[in-house]
Amino acid sequence: MRLANSHTVMGIVILSILLLIWQFLPPALGIPRFIIPTVTDMLTELGRMYRRENLIANTVSTAWYTLLGFAIGSALGAMIGYLLGFSQFWERVLSPYILALQIAPKVAFAPLFIMWFGYNAIPKLLVTVLIVFFPVLVNVLAAMKTVDRDMVNLARAYSMTRWEIFLKVEFPSTLPNLMAGLRIASTLAVIGVTVGELVGGNTGLGFLISYGGGQANAAMVFNAIVLLTLIGIVLYSVLAWAEERLLHYIPKKDH
Amino acid sequence: MALEFRNVSKSFDVPGGKRLTAVEGIDFKVNEGEFVSVVGPSGCGKSTILSMTAGLYQPTTGEVLVSGEVVTKPNPHVGFMLQKDLLLPWRTIIKNVEFGLESRGVGKAERRDRAMAELERCHLAGFENQYPHQLSGGMRQRAALARTLAIDPDIILLDEPFSALDAQTKLLIQNSFAETIQEAGITTLLITHDLSEAVIMSDRVLVLSERPGTVMREIPIDLPDRAHPLRRRQMPEVHQHAGEIFKLLRLDQRAA
Predict the structure, then answer these.
(1) pTM for this prediction
(2) Is there a contact between B90 and A172 if contact means CB atoms under 8 Å apart?
(3) pLDDT grade, residue B252 (50/70/90)?
(4) B74 CB near a chain A CB, below 8 Å?
(5) ipTM at complex level
(6) How far apart (Å, rounded) are the C-alpha atoms in residues A66 and A54?
(7) Residues A206-212: contacts with CB within 8 Å, 24+ apart?
(8) Domain B34-45+73-251 adopts which CATH fold?
(9) Where in chain A are the domains?
(10) Under CATH, which number does the domain A35-246 receive?
(11) Domain limits, chain B
(12) pLDDT at residue B60 in the model
């Protein structure tokens, strides 16, 4: 408990020092406020964005599409990962394509999606789904390949069906990897939505960034970045919490 | 329930387009309630024998019979245990013991009762709600035995279940296994590297040759106290038998 307290105290101290440096160092070095706004400038701008730029609606929109894209992308990634994990044949046949798509920069598809689907929510959702899909798929597939064969044989010897073996042995065995994939995916989901909104949107924090950039309003851009980061942190923390709960049976290393 | 191998051979395709014969012309019988050990040099196909008995795969030629019936698929009357305890780390000990009963249409309450009874028999009462990582290696192996006994098998196949345990734990676990198996009257096939383990635990020892493995010799162990390997260990005959197997396997020559 004392350790936790001293962590919190130290955290607050470091945060205060950072904010103070941000507030006073750039002006002291003569950097203009439209290049690096001070903390108080950003707070003032935040108030203006709340009144004039539909800040709440834009933030909620971005958070919603992050969550939706993350949910669809990781569900598809996990599903295809497990399906390919069942069949060595299809895994071998399809792996070059998976690798190619995994390496291709997914955000570069955004302009294409806009050409195809227009200036609406579909392009940013697609970019997010695509960017989330692969880390989940790859993690699940790798885990399916390393499930203990003897455990599967044990289940077979107990006359379990293919589906029972999946539910009772394979799925729980791959859960740590699935959760790791989801954690990586959660950080990427924010990037997907932001790029979608930057390239062609009229809502969301990504839109506010490109709008603010166009007006040379650095404080607005900084505020949007901070809010995007917060959305990512919330999603990541929920997953980390869920992982802790689900994988409670894995012994923790005490250092 | 008895177990019989009739002129069984098994070969596998190996990378490089070759075929590898693991065992050849294996012919033996284990009578009901008998405890038989199989010893042999590494890679002589001991584990192949076990997998074929469990019905995980079929022989290339010949047949494996359990109670006079040819084994073609996993048999609900055969339980097996490996060197690894194969406990599911995400399940508590009691849920692990219930694992084998879940696909057999046993009701939830009955599953729990049977699992609890086996845990008591294996001296693990009080640990039912622990997770495998909280138990020692010896206790985990006892939990694996409880899981194997829970399905009420007529035959148990043991593939070096004691070899990962430290020397003292091994003696104690051998003793408690032997006692439990004797009481339950279960036919047992033990695969092992440990010659004295084979002698102190069995009614009969089968010595396999190098690959392709075939039964070189059957050595009956006419000693009392099969249920108490710790007592058998004290008997001078044990060393004679182990010495005899040692010579058969030509371990001294291989060392040179």
Answers:
(1) 0.84
(2) yes
(3) low
(4) yes
(5) 0.82
(6) 18
(7) A206/A62, A206/A124, A207/A58, A208/A49, A208/A53, A208/A55, A208/A58, A211/A53
(8) Rossmann fold (3.40.50)
(9) 1-31, 35-246
(10) 1.10.3720.10
(11) 34-45+73-251
(12) 92
